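Aim 2 progress. For Flavodoxin, the working sequence is reproduced below.
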Amino acid sequence: MALTALALNCTLSRTPADSSTELLAQQVLDALGEHGVTGSMVRVVDHDVRPGVELDMGDGDAWPTLRERVIASDILVLATPTWLGQHSSVCQRVLERLDAELSEKDEHGRLLTYGKVAVAVVVGNEDGAHHVSAVLFQSLDDVGFTIPAGGVTYWNGEAMHGTDYKDLASTPDAVTSTTRTLAANAAHLAGLLAGSPYPPSDED
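Predicted structure tokens for this construct:
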């Protein structure tokens, strides 16, 4: 079964600036590719995603087009840097826009995100990855995504240190192993859900 993944890179840096978040997110897409998953990436800050919690905030809002790609994908890779121990403001805006999915249901009363898998990617130079992934997991679960076992890969540099993930000479073995496990579990779960959807809602 052909599966697809979309990575939303929530770096604060516009293209063509280098992005540690993009590097680790791409490594996740590459690892998913080893399981037959076709992936693509969007740098959200390059698009005019308006603040709000509606499907379309009007006036040139870019979210409806991005949302179409989210809904068309089997796996969402939500990738964010860590600032002040928190996910980025761009990532928060994505979460706020996903809130609108709570009102979108199929003919059986299920959210359109049911059956879709979501994983997290977190990078930063200080601690915060566990907190950020916890926030992302709860938010993504709230709006209907399913989180696989080992659903986050991350890298944190030493405290008070200025090295970025993209500046490392090589990827740490622990990050590589975690990324591969995430990809294997996400692809496996997405395949299962594609072949055996969640049951109809009690509302049906």
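Residues 173-195 form the longest helix (23 residues). This observation will guide construct design in the next reporting period.
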